[in-house]
Write a structure and sequence with these properties.
Helix content of chain B: 40-55%
Largest sheet of chain A: 4 strands, antiparallel
Strand content of chain B: under 5%
Number of helices of chain B: 14
Structural class of chain B: mainly alpha
Largest sheet of chain B: none
Distance between the termini of chain B: 43 Å
Number of strands of chain A: 4
Shape of chain B: globular
GO biological process, one term (chain B): membrane lipid metabolic process
Radius of gyration of chain A: 19 Å
Subcellular location (chain B): Endomembrane system
Shape of chain A: elongated
Keywords (chain B): Lipid metabolism, Membrane, Oxidoreductase, Transmembrane, Transmembrane helix
Number of strands of chain B: 0
Distance between the termini of chain A: 47 Å
Order of helices and strands of chain A: HHEEEE
Order of helices and strands of chain B: HHHHHHHHHHHHHH
Number of domains of chain B: 1
GO molecular function (chain B): glyceryl-ether monooxygenase activity; iron ion binding
Bound molecules: zinc ion
Number of domains of chain A: 1
Structural class of chain A: alpha+beta
Oligomer: heterodimer
Pfam families (chain B): FA_hydroxylase
Strand order of the largest sheet of chain A: 1-2-3-4
Radius of gyration of chain B: 20 Å
């Protein structure tokens, strides 16, 4: 490993992230209540969704399960993660 | 002993060019395949991994030479030794990788590679920082003991790593049937990165998928169950240090708080193991999934499926 390789790699890292930004890649929104429920079920083993309420900007949602448990979906980059509501 | 170059060093420009091309394809087809913050995290993790690797390379090499001193055979740098070394090294990789998913100690080091919810070429560069600490080098020692020269083994290992780069993509669907039968492919490795219950802990192959077929860990990608990527419990933050160390921190916390009889289980049991059964393992997730009616909803439905690299439309036979 040389300093040239190290500097080149770091330049490559920052350059590629910048290109991703310039190409406006990423971003996400929940298409429907159904999608929110499907994501909540996939993110939480054993969770069975009954209903979902999307936020106005479709960047988050609260999903309610069969036993009344609530899961909050939050946008994380171009994907969603589930958290305890 | 010849002074062989590290093939990975020469591959870096190629990695950068291919990520760039894949980004352009993402812009045209589906912008959600890349996310700038995720890309930066992946690449910084790759960058950190090369530094960690360089810092420990000397010690690993010295250890390899020491073990090689006890070799059973004198394997020369002959034409036949190279492919043999490559295949056996790939088998050693399979054993390592399977352990990396079934033993929490090794998982703590490998989890970094699975920590992105994306699956693109930049994900391939998410490599471990703590491989040396986890003692992953143990898995290669049998090769030196057999008698393969350390320089030859490390060269093959580098080529193996380079091969694994191109399979981290959704751009390529299925490859020709004969290729899917023998080689690890984007389709097979998407399964490996997926958290869908049916795909958990499958397809550990490095280069040759035949190991999974031989040892019962193979599962084909199904068009009706599109892979969802990441961890069973996703990190939810773009923090390079957290991605690199979170599972080690988890082990330390559990070792501290667990009762004595359970401590070993938290370090060397399967990921998700707990003494009171309060956490999910791959097995419990699969049981819960099998126990319920077939899910009616599939996340990502309606989005473009990956295109095919051949005219072969069907999935590979299991
Ligand atoms: Zn893995
Ligand atoms: Zn991978």
């Amino acid at each position: 490993m040389s300093w040239t390789l190290l500097a080149g790699s770091l330049a490559g890292v920052l350059g590629l992230a910048l290109v991703a930004k310039l190409l406006r890649l990423g971003g996400a929104e929940l298409a429907s209540e159904d999608e929110a429920m499907a994501i909540a079920e996939a993110e939480r083993p054993g969770f069975v969704a009954v209903s979902a309420v999307l936020a106005e900007d479709r960047q988050s949602a609260v999903v309610t399960g069969t036993d009344g448990e609530q899961v909050r979906l939050r946008r994380h980059g171009a994907q969603f993660v589930a958290e305890h509501a | 002993m010849p002074d062989l170059p590290n093939p990975v060093d020469y591959a870096v420009p190629g990695f950068i060019a291919l990520v760039l091309i894949e980004m352009l394809i993402a812009r045209a087809r589906d912008k959600r395949r890349y996310c700038p913050k995720d890309t930066l995290t992946s690449l910084m993790l790759g960058f950190g991994s090369t530094i960690a690797g360089a810092l420990t390379a000397g010690a690993v090499y010295a250890m390899a030479v020491w073990v090689w001193g006890f070799r059973l055979l004198d394997i020369p740098y002959a034409w036949w030794a190279w492919p043999l070394c490559f295949v056996l090294d790939d088998l050693a990789y399979y054993v390592f990788h399977r352990s990396a998913h079934r033993v929490r100690w090794f998982w703590a080091s490998h989890v970094i590679h699975h920590s992105s919810q994306h699956y693109n070429l930049s994900t391939a560069l998410r490599q471990t920082w703590t491989g040396f600490f986890s003692m992953a080098f143990l898995f290669r020692l049998p090769l030196f003991l057999i008698g393969f020269p350390p320089a030859m083994v490390f060269f093959c290992a580098g080529v193996n790593l380079i091969y694994q780069f191109w399979i981290h993509t959704e751009v390529i669907g299925r490859c020709p049937r004969w290729f899917e039968a023998v080689m690890n492919t984007p389709s097979h490795h998407r399964v490996h990165h997926a958290t869908n219950p049916r795909y958990l802990d499958k397809n550990y192959a490095g280069v040759f998928i035949v190991w999974d077929r031989m040892f019962g860990s193979f599962t084909p990608e199904l068009d009706e169950d599109r892979p969802r990527y990441g961890l069973v419990k996703n990190l939810g933050r773009f923090n390079v240090l957290w991605a690199a160390f979170h599972e080690w921190i988890g082990i330390a916390r559990d070792l501290w708080s667990a009762p004595w009889r359970a401590k070993a289980g938290y370090a060397f049991g399967p990921p998700g193991w707990s003494h009171d059964g309060s956490r999910d393992t791959s097995e419990t997730i699969r049981e819960k999934w099998a126990g319920r009616a077939q899910p009616t909803r599939h996340p990502g439905e309606g989005r473009d499926p990956p295109s095919s690299c051949s005219s072969e439309p069907s999935a590979v036979a299991a």
